[in-house]
Design brief:
The protein has 231 residues and is α/β, with parallel strands linked by helices. It has a single domain (3-164), classed as TIM Barrel (Alpha-Beta Barrel). The chain has helices at residues 37-40, 51-61, 81-90, 104-112, 130-133, 142-152, 171-180, 208-218; strands at residues 3-10, 19-24, 67-71, 94-99, 118-122, 157-164, 187-191, 225-228. Strands 1-2-3-4-5-6-7-8 form an 8-stranded mixed beta sheet, with helices on one face. Helix 3 (81-90) links the parallel strand 3 (67-71) and strand 4. Helix 7 (171-180) packs parallel to helix 8. The longest helix has 11 residues, at 51-61. The termini are far apart.
C-alpha cells in the first residue's frame, strides 16, 4: 500500500462515526477539479507512511475510534488493499471505502469477504460526459456502470456523491444522473471548493439556490438526495 496521508481523527469522513482517514497514492483518473493533486500524481520526493506507523496509530487510538476511512487517490488500485483491510477489521474497527468505481471486481470481493461496512462512490457526471470530466477519452464506462449496479444491491451500506461545478454540471445532467442511478439508497451533492491542491483551478461553484434546484430534480429519482458541506 502506498499511503501518503493520515488524518488521525475526523467526525466528517465516516457518517456518524469517529474515524481515522488514510489517504492512498495514485489514481487512474485525472479529474481537473480534484483537490488531491499530490495524491493523484505523487511528487518524486514524496514521503510515504509505513503500515507499521498506521497500525501503531490505530492501536493507540482504538478506544476512541469507531472505524477507518480509506480514500485517495483511488484505493482499489492497490492489490494489497484486502490484506490491509483484514488487519484493520481484526482490530474490531469499521471500514469505509471511498472509490471512483473503476474496479468493481475488487469492490465485490471486499463486500463478499465482509471487509467493508460503508462505500462512498463518486459519480462524476452523466454517462455522456464521463470521459471528458475524468480526462480519460478512451475510458470504458462499463466498469462504473457495474459498480453502480453492485452497490444498488444493498449488500453493504453505501452512498453515491458528486462534486458539482458551474462549468461542468447543469439541470440536464442532473436529470440524466437521476435516471441512471434511480432508486439509489443515498445521493449527496457536494459544491466545488477551491484549494491549493486542485489539479486545475479553473472551476467555480454554483449558487446555493441552483444546488437546491438540482436536489429537487434528483429527488424525483433518488428521494434521499441531499446537499453536503453547504452552509
Amino acid at each position: 500500500m502506498l499511503i501518503l496521508g493520515l488524518q488521525k481523527t475526523t467526525l466528517l469522513d465516516y457518517p456518524g462515526k469517529i474515524a481515522s482517514t488514510i489517504f492512498t497514492g495514485g489514481c487512474n483518473f485525472r479529474c481537473p477539479f480534484c483537490h488531491n493533486r499530490d495524491l493523484v500524481m505523487p511528487p518524486n520526493d514524496v514521503i510515504a507512511y509505513s503500515e507499521d506507523e498506521i497500525f501503531e496509530h490505530l492501536k493507540a487510538k482504538k478506544k476512541v475510534l469507531d472505524g477507518v476511512c480509506i480514500t485517495g487517490g483511488e484505493p482499489t488500485l492497490h492489490k494489497d488493499l484486502p490484506g490491509f483491510i483484514h488487519k484493520i477489521k481484526d482490530m474490531g474497527l469499521l471500514v469505509k471505502l471511498d472509490s471512483n468505481g473503476t474496479n468493481p471486481d475488487m469492490v465485490e470481493s471486499l463486500i463478499n469477504q465482509g471487509l467493508v461496512d460503508y462505500i462512498a462512490m463518486d459519480i462524476k457526471n452523466s454517462k455522456e460526459k464521463y470521459n471528458s470530466i475524468a480526462c480519460m477519452p478512451n475510458f470504458d464506462i462499463g466498469t462504473i456502470e457495474a459498480s453502480v449496479e453492485l452497490l444498488k444491491q444493498e449488500r453493504v451500506d453505501y452512498e453515491f456523491r458528486t462534486t458539482i461545478m458551474r462549468e461542468c454540471h447543469d439541470a440536464e445532467d442532473m436529470e440524466a444522473i437521476g435516471q441512471w442511478i434511480k432508486g439509489a439508497k443515498a445521493y449527496y451533492l457536494q459544491s466545488y471548493k477551491e484549494s491549493e491542491q486542485v489539479i486545475n483551478p479553473i472551476f467555480s461553484a454554483h449558487s446555493p439556490e441552483t444546488l437546491k434546484s438540482f436536489v429537487d430534480i434528483l429527488k424525483n429519482y433518488i428521494p434521499n438526495t441531499n446537499l453536503r458541506g453547504i452552509d
